[in-house]
Amino acid sequence: MSTQNQIDYERIAKAIDYIRSNFKLQPSLEEVAEKIHLSPAHFQKMFSDWAGTSPKKFLQFISLEHAKSLLKEEKASLFDTAYETGLSSTSRLHDLFVKIEGMSPAEYKNGGKSLNINYSFSESPFGKVIAASTEKGICYMAFETDLHKALGDLQAKFPNASFFERKDDFQNNALSIFSKDWSELNTIKLHLKGTDFQLKVWESLLTIPMGKLSTYGNMADKIGNPNASRAVGTAIGSNPVAFLIPCHRVIQSTGKIGGYMWGSERKQLIIGWESSKMYS
């Protein structure tokens, strides 16, 4: 991401934060533009280029009522219509071709001692991202502006692995999800360190369609353990692969966005961005 693109992203994030904080007041285009020091016309164009929709429409996508309506749809369908959006258009659900493979017990227990991990830093619509991969697939992906911290967090996940700063085909394919027509994407392979329960929860997240939302309780029902919503929430919160495993699509039953490992503001941005791609 160029310096200008980074500035634009930060301005949009600030605008979304202002809209979210003042939603009940229904701020006008002029008010929001003023808060990020842009003319209304410039802000409208910048926002539409980024989100693919107008600020006014985007405001609807991040509202509490919109979230509640999506949850009602999800509750009614029980995921039966998860794949109704079609597979050949740009609205294709990336969840259909994300495949998870768990690490072996030895790889899990010894901190990745036998693993060679490639990593690279890239840009996304939601800020800088680090992606890392083994010889079997993506093992880690996170949003992080501090590159030193990003690498440190990765190394903490696999303290005994060998690390190499280079971008490979696994990473290129995974990162292209932010920019390509999804109908042209190859299967994205993930190679993850997690318990059987965590892997089951992460796999269940892949059934939430793009542009839709679910709750922690509904996800517990989905894995056949309705009394485990707290444990499910913990597993969701420990998701090691940002965006590809869509933990951002799980919110509170009240419609409130709730927490997110990479920031609630970014979660709100992603939810709004996905909704705009589906409904605009």
Features:
alpha/beta; 12 helices
The structural class is alpha/beta
Shape field? globular
Q: pLDDT under 50 segments (min length 5)?
A: 76-96
Biggest sheet strand line-up: 4-3-2-5
Largest sheet: number of strands, sense, barrel closure? 4 strands, mixed
| Beta strand count | 8
End-to-end gap: 25 Å
Number of DSSP helices?
12
Give the helix proportion (percent range).
40-55%
Instruction: Calculate Rg over CA atoms.
Output: 19 Å
Strand content: 5-15%
SSE succession = HHHHHEHEEEHEHEHEHHEH
List the helices and strands and how they pair.
Elements (H helix, E strand, L loop, with lengths): L2 H19 L7 H7 L4 H12 L3 H7 L2 H14 L20 E5 L2 H5 L6 E9 L2 E7 L4 E6 L3 H11 L4 E4 L3 H7 L12 E5 L3 H10 L8 E2 H7 L6 H9 L12 E2 L12 H16 L1
Parallel strand pairs: 1-6, 2-5, 7-8
Antiparallel strand pairs: 2-3, 3-4
Helix pairs in contact: 2-3, 4-12, 10-11
Account of the protein in words:
- By secondary structure, the protein is of the alpha/beta class.
- The chain contains twelve helices and eight strands.
- The strands form three sheets. The chain has a four-stranded mixed β-sheet with strand order 4-3-2-5.
- A hairpin with a 4-residue loop joins strand 3 (127-133) and strand 4.
- Helix 2 crosses helix 3, helix 4 (55-61) packs across helix 12 and helix 10 (216-222) crosses helix 11 (229-237).
- The protein is globular.
